[in-house]
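Hi! If you just cloned this repository, the fastest way to understand the data is to look at a raw example. We've pasted two of them here, unedited. The first protein comes first, obviously.
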Amino acid sequence: MTSKGRKKTSRRSFLQGVAISTAAVTGVELLKKDVADAADATSEGQCKEISSQSTEFDLTEKSAALQPDKIVNSACQFCNSLCRLKVHVKDGRIVDVLGEPDDPVQAGGFCIKGPMMTELVYNRFRLKYPMKRVAGEKGSTDSQFEQISWDEALSIIAGKFLALRDLGEARAIANKTSGRLPRGTGSLVGRYFNLLGSPNDTDVGPVCNDAGGNALAWTFGLGNFTNGYGIDGATKKEDLGSAKFLLFLGTNQAETHPVTFTYLLRSRAKTKAKLIVIDPRLTPTGAQADEWIAPKPHTDLALVLAMLYHIVTHNLYDAAFVHSWVLGFDELKQHLKSNNYTPEWAAQITDVPVSKIKFLAETYAQTKPAAIFCNAGISHQLNAFDTYRCLAFLAAITGNIGISGGGCNFMHNTWPGGLNLPPIEGKIPKKDIALPVGPDYFAEAIISGQPYRLKALITQGNPLLACSNTAKVQQAYRHLEFYVYTGLFMEESAYYADIILPVTSGFEMETVYMRRDDRAIRWQQQVVPPIGESKPDWHIWIELAHATAKLDKRNPPQYWQDNFPSSWKDYRHLWTTFVANTPGMAGMTQQRLSERSEPLRWPCPTVAHPGVSTLYLDHPSWYQAAESLDVKNKGKRFLTPSGKVEIYTSQLQKQLTKAGHSALPIFYTHPEVTGRNPTIEYLAELVKNPVNPHALTHNVKLGKLSTGEVHKQYPLMGTTGRSSVVHFHSVTHWTYTGKQKNGVRLVQIHPKTAQTAGIENGDEIIVESPRGSIKGTALLWQGIREDTIFVPNWFGSQQKMAQDLGTPYYEAANVLIDQKYYDNLSGQQAFKCFACRIKKA
């Protein structure tokens, strides 16, 4: 972190001298060895500690040239820590970026990515005006585009959409959003698609963390991160900072959410809370832990089931809480026993010692309050919904839900069901059922036409890097009739587009953009004017509606214009509309948000309400907020039909069995996990998705044993994830800092595994899976399982900043991933395990 934007922390490496096989090692042990060996760190992959620059004197103080004309309160958009950035502007140019010292969570700091927001503004590769394809094969870098006006671009899009609708094919039009969107843009997209009559307006959730939100909603009533960072405004007490046990599963927050993670570490220094990190590889998060536990990839569900078994059978659960607030405990107990989900069973599946599983269960159950944190490491498994449900059970039976310092803090599940707009004026067409949830199914619908063909698509992200089996997505986009790409740069997906629309970066608009994981948001002011002719995303959809009004021969212009008033282009007006129409947000006015140094949490029903830190807290502030969401919630603590935590009910069972699941999950995993394990079989039949009932999904059978045949040729398990704290998805690869500091794809391999393959540290290597191959550079790393390699994702073949810094161009890591395997309930793709092999290039 950078304290007040100035102090730079040194970078330490994890040293190569600790023997790690498969079970567990403490981060403390590694750090002790780090200190002992730093003086003569000479073996491969090691480096000496680098001293920080002196911060004793600020030699820029009172520099006339650097004194800002104004300081603008904006926000970083590179992760869900939601740091305020105090942007210094001189003569209309950004000259400095500092942190917010008056936010107790941020504490004046931000990570390396904060100043990189400026590098999106002043970037020679920015898209600056609309373009249309005039020549070249789709996907080819020889594609030729010419500049056109916004009016022409939007007219072409509206004309194509209306032509499909008038042919009775509105369902053949789709949209895919991404996390880069200003808040509320998705509501405008949904409104446009309702007026058009298409069901296929999808959000970023299946790429991100929908499974966590789905599981929380089905168990507790709301699909949101349950607890808050900092002081609870209602109780005036620390919330997550008061935790005595921090259980991290599949989340590397030191690199993905560094500022909120640092807050937890500061709090832990006071509370002496135990931190356990579960991850197949040692990360900077694991280095801070009391203990790092390394299970096989994609086997977390077995670990959690065994923890539940041990807690239930040894009477370590909170009997009083279970009696008062939990439905289905007896059924859960019988389920665990009848399936023999013992620690001994789980040890065989996960490769974690029996003693370690029992210790983990006992420590979690007996140390209160205990908080669970999860992210993509769980979400990107094909059993994600069921794993998250079991984690919710874990919190419930130990009484760690609805209390400060506890909860199920599943990252990125932060917003209400939607930011609502007024009811649509006029009659809207009936919509068909949506394609299966998950962006990767679009490729199948384009290529095969099943269950119907997708013909037109508009995206706000870069699906060629985000979707699994990149080669299949490329094939699909080449055959797509009409594709609109919106973005900051000519990313990989843009070369397949018919129309390209330039958007603004965060500093170029006034809005609410990102949100902190604990449902907290802050207002951000516009810092500089838009670059070129770029527009904020919500402007594009309002103007597209007005362009559609001019061409629609079925409806009068008012059908579109009245439902998309031009006044909404002023985000303050749009936000006021959202607040007035979204239950539980009446207290989140623009004025209140602007005046605060720290963000404000949802739900917040009045301007006098402090906002909710702990969901389901037995406190008047929670009951007031719950009732504001729905009058039917009056007096309810949990917002399920019963008002209690629902582990098992006959209704849950009835709904989930329709898609091959159960209210009480059984263990299954990816067929490319080594060994023979219960896995999943996708049936040809498409059924209504019980978790996302607007869409279809594959019916499945669970429990069939995998054959293990794939590992005869591909003996390793690969997993993907963020390359380092420098990067946030693909966009940071378009910055000088991102490419300078981490522009080489470093594939982490255990030294013993590398030795077997004849690979040395720094060698160029090829990683192959049954789907394809990619190149990278070997990084020998003691802190990873011997049977696992880690391939950083979000590298792409068109990231032009590489030419300035001399770093390689790479194909997407998702070339290696099998598109077929996904969570059929949430739509989450299985990025966290694929069979692979490595060789020297």
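Ok, and the second one:
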Amino acid sequence: MAPEGGKKGSANQKQPHSNKTEARTLKRKREQDDVAKLKQAIDELDVKSPDIKNFTDLPLCSLTAKGLRASHFETLTDVQRVAIPLALKGKDILGAAKTGSGKTLAFLVPVLEKLYRAQWTELDGLGALIISPTRELAVQIFEVLRKIGRNHTFSAGLVIGGKSLKEEAERLGRMNILVCTPGRMLQHLDQTAGFDVDNLQMLVLDEADRIMDLGFQSAVDALIEHLPKDRQTMLFSATQSKRVSDLARLSLKDPEYVSVHEEATSATPVTLQQHYIVMPLAEKLDTLWGFLRSNLKSKIIVFFSSGKQVRFAYEAFKRMQPGISLLHLHGRQKQIARLEVTSRFTAAKYVCLFATDVVARGVDFPSVDWVIQADCPEDADTYIHRVGRTARYESKGRAVLFLEPSEEAGFLKRLEHKKVPIQKVHVKDKKKTSITDQLQSLCFQSPDLKYLGQKAFISYTRSIHLQKDKSVFKFQKLDLDAYAASMGLPGTPQIKFKKGEDIKKLKNAPRHGFSSGSEVEDDEDRKSKKEVVRTKYDKMTERQNQDVLSSHYRKLLGDDEDAAEGDDDDEADFLSVKRVLGDDDLDQAAEEGEAGSSTQPKVIQLGKSELIIDSNRREKLLKSKKKLLKYMDKPTKMVFDDDGVAHPIYMLQDEEDFALEGPASKLREQFVEVEANKVREADVEDKEIVKARRKEKKDRAKARERGEELAALGPQLDVDSDVEMEDPLALLRSLPTPGGDYNQSDDDDRDNNDEPPKKRAKKWFEDDSEDERQKEKESKKRKTGKKVIEMDHEPDNLQDLEALAAGLLED
């Protein structure tokens, strides 16, 4: 029976295992049947059918359909209605659609369906690769992929940098879908061992034209060489260019061109209101400040051409506090900071984001009200992508472009060619405010802000100088001095890339030619003069204070005048320092001011006073700044108000302004009330201070009393050793007291006695009367014949010893 029972138990144990195997087999068979039905439905699908309007009209697996419903995606957009059916049939696609038209789902849904029909598992390796030009767009694509693919078993990864290459390499081998940036992905393909892409099924390039513009063309070409040739490829962008077509010939096979907005009247959404403002370069920051102050209850993105301009505008406006939350985003920030800024901007309701073009493409920020382009974009495509951050998918939005007068005509032609409708508007006079004084005050107070302003100025001018479209960006027509002043800079920074034709000529020109008082020569006069290269010897001979050495060099060079003088006067010494002048030479020297002093003294204006230079001593005084101070007007100390306007510290108020403030009696009452409040607050603080001091005094007294009680208990033992603690006042007690005779026998008696004299215990209240104490004191004095001073306890601190000494010195 036992063996039979054992066999029966083993059969019961194998039965659940067989049930699981049968369940897995049935599940696999159902999946294969579903895949077969999907393939048949896709083969029978008519890509041009007008009945395809929702995601339910497409032959999608149940897992993808469930993820789309959970993410609230139901209706197909124009680009999705055309691109997804073609992608499901395995066609290569080159697509272009307006910003905010749903291009992300147009390639993510085919990616999931492709891997599902192939029954892809972790053991099969990488199945789909999605490349994005920026990190922010890659993060957004990955988040959408997680939402709609939540029911699938595929593993997805995000490779955008910001972490160590080793940490990312450890996860790559387990990924089925990768969302990445081109440079980081190429780095893994070259350096990560064991990273296999031979089984790749689908390659997706989002914003492909921007990938070429950012200089990733060589990286993408090298990346494509690593990938297998037998794959499905899709390219999507809001704009098309010739470079994208070149890339299509390299990586796509008979692609289907999907262009939704070719027949449309505009390349931008219809719900987008587009305007532009023409203003001088120096008024750009003033206009931006006035706009922010007028739209505090809005969500705004402000685009600049460089990250340094973003940093300066953010730091300056943040200190001026416009009344709206400010954020900034540029490519130089670390990955964690960039992700934090994007999440904060997405969640906020009223906020302003200063950004570069890193968020100009593809990034979907919800409910953006305004897109401000403070700097003119490099081309019309960049303009389209920037304004596409608002008016996303049939929502409303507004965009404003700031243009310099020299940029207006050329850039409007570019927008007209792209079918972009835009209207010119003007800023209301009452909305115009100048923040130049405030920026000057901030730059003066903060050297860091001034440094950022200088870098921002150079960065902007360099970007304008390097622009390829010279019909729009005209560097020579920019008023750079006024622009630097509008930024609060003390002067215009030097521009190193500004190439001059006569730089060497300017360096070799005499110094007096650069003085502010020199006249500008005509072109004919400049051409008529003979250009001679000046050497250091020529400069030495032109010095005003010449010595023997310079005279010697002048003689060696063979000056004509010196040679003529040598012929006329043979007795002239070879090393003579002074030059011999004739009558004509003296008259000419007097006229030119080279010999002797002028008969008319020189007058120099120093503030409101005049300084007359009538002697060599006065001329030397000009070289001493310390001595020159007494001739100059004393400077007036200035203060800056809230608007950044400088005022003297003490200013007398006009009678009219004083009358506008109200009657004098009321002002007096207000002043008295304010000062009384200050006095009451000061009294409260003083009382707190006195209370604290009293408490501290009581604590010290209690601490002293506790020390006296310990001393009354006799010497204590140290906790850490058996040695008796040393009494710090023992030496003072051993000294003879003044007023009494020193007796050696007292010491002998004290030494012979082993036990120390008992201290009189301290009592908080004495029971004996004052008369009994006095009698006891007199009896002790009669017995010993010495002065007796009675103390409540043995002196153990400095105060007791002082009291003892004072008692001894009374008699």
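That's it. A detail worth noticing about the second one: The chain has a mean pLDDT of 77.
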